Amino acid sequence: MAQLEEKVRSFAEELFKIGAIKIGEYVTKMNIPTPIYIDLRLIVSFPKLIELVSDIMIEYLKQIPKFDIICGVPYAALPLASALSMKLNIPMVMRRKESKSYGMRKMIEGVYKEGDRCLIIEDVVTSGSSIIETLEDLNEVGIHCSHALILMDRQQGGTNNLIKEGVTMHSLLNMTHLLKYLREANYIDDSTVNKVTNYMLTTQVDLSSNSIPSLNRLKLPYEERIAYAKNNRAQELFKIMSEKRTNLCVAADVTKSDELISLANQTGPYICLFKTHIDILEDFNIDVVEALKKIAEKHNFLLFEDRKFSDIGKTVQMQYSNGMYKILSWANVVTAHSLAGAGMLDAIKHGNNGVFLLAEISTSGSIIDKNYTEKTVKLALQYPDLVTGIVCQNPLFTSEPGFIQLTPGVQLDVEGDGLGQKYNTPDVVIGNGADIAVVGRGITKSSEPNVAAEKYRSLLWGAYLKRIE
Ligand SMILES: O=c1ccn([C@@H]2O[C@H](COP(=O)(O)O)[C@@H](O)[C@H]2O)c(=O)[nH]1
């Protein structure tokens, strides 16, 4: 047994050496980003490796009941099935991927008879769907299959999906062991192990539910969500958040420029976003935003004008670019109400900028209803290049890890402000799905905004770490 494990370990290491295991940002057959890509088609160019694999497969056959024929899932598993067929002197059949337009239009080539017991061979299994397609064609011609021998199980639901079809899967290697062997050989580091493990756990495919794999954003670390974000500002934010270990946005609702600049300087080290209502400044001058831009660069945060646009496209376009505030020239992200719909979003699409759409509001008596909220989320998902995220109080789009949930109404003291504002604590908002929490008066009214900002940062970050555990 120890000998077999050593062979499997060396198989895993060889795969890495020949470049069949790739770590980085890839996309799976189901169009889902993946931090690891396994390409076992390469092994046809390494006869010694095929020999090693065949030896290991033969060892595994001791656990599998007798069979009459072998069938490889096209195309990657065909050389493996052929090698095994030759070594064991057991006949092989081949499944076509598509039927011929001439002759007998057979899907299964080779010699077989009804009632034959077949062992299916496959290279890599994610959901098991390719094995199931092969199984269906074999069953069609009366061949029975209840076992599949595969090289690599990505542990993303394949075993369960195949059991439902009456097939037991036997794998030479699974993702857990692959990561263990590669880590022990120092080919990968701990962070890759954690990243891939987390990916595996959060990307399970249940073929019977007829849905795409569930990617629960609430369980994914921010740095892994960069790959899912289409909006440049969302990518940037995830990066800043991971690097600075902060999911805090400060709402700098003050009326004097000096105060605004002082707040940016004091809270800068602890925030990912600095949120303004620029039109409440009594002494606005364009120099203020120039100063903010410099502080943002120094402390690595983005500038966020909470303008809440809500007009026809043309008007919003002018409100965004013109007037004395020239928001487009300095704000990296802005907010917009969704009520004007797609036309307004089309009007404010600008290369690099981002928009947070308001799906819910944190004030009591709001007339936004469930229908409006749902329509807003739908609209946001139609504009992945433009929309950075959604302003809301609840986890509305958990299977969309590329979008950011921004939640205002955050304070340790949850008494309202007497004007309708509703507050929740950092723990509650992160539990309710917030990726970034907006804290205004909890920080701005403190005698030491820097101390308060660090306190909120640490509480919010701790709650996030607990959430992704
Ligand atoms: O639903 C919403 C949307 C935006 N806001 C804005 O956030 C801050 C909250 O400030 P606090 O002092 O923490 O109450 C403020 O700028 C609002 O305009 C919100 O509160 N709720």
From TrEMBL:
Its EC number is 2.4.2.10, 4.1.1.23. InterPro entries: Aldolase_TIM, OMPdecase, OMPdecase_AS, OMPdeCOase_dom, OPRT, Or_phspho_trans_dom, PRTase-like, PRTase_dom. Substrate binds at residues 253, 275, 362, 421, 440-441. One of its GO terms (biological process) is 'de novo' UMP biosynthetic process. Keywords: Decarboxylase, Glycosyltransferase, Lyase, Multifunctional enzyme, Pyrimidine biosynthesis, Transferase. It holds the Pfam family OMPdecase. GO terms for molecular function: orotate phosphoribosyltransferase activity; orotidine-5'-phosphate decarboxylase activity. Pathway: Pyrimidine metabolism; UMP biosynthesis via de novo pathway; UMP from orotate: step 1/2; Pyrimidine metabolism; UMP biosynthesis via de novo pathway; UMP from orotate: step 2/2. Residues 247-456 form the Orotidine 5'-phosphate decarboxylase domain. The active site is at residues 306, 308, 311. In the N-terminal section; belongs to the purine/pyrimidine phosphoribosyltransferase family. In the C-terminal section; belongs to the OMP decarboxylase family. PANTHER family: OROTATE PHOSPHORIBOSYLTRANSFERASE (PTHR19278), URIDINE 5'-MONOPHOSPHATE SYNTHASE (PTHR19278:SF9). This is Uridine 5'-monophosphate synthase.
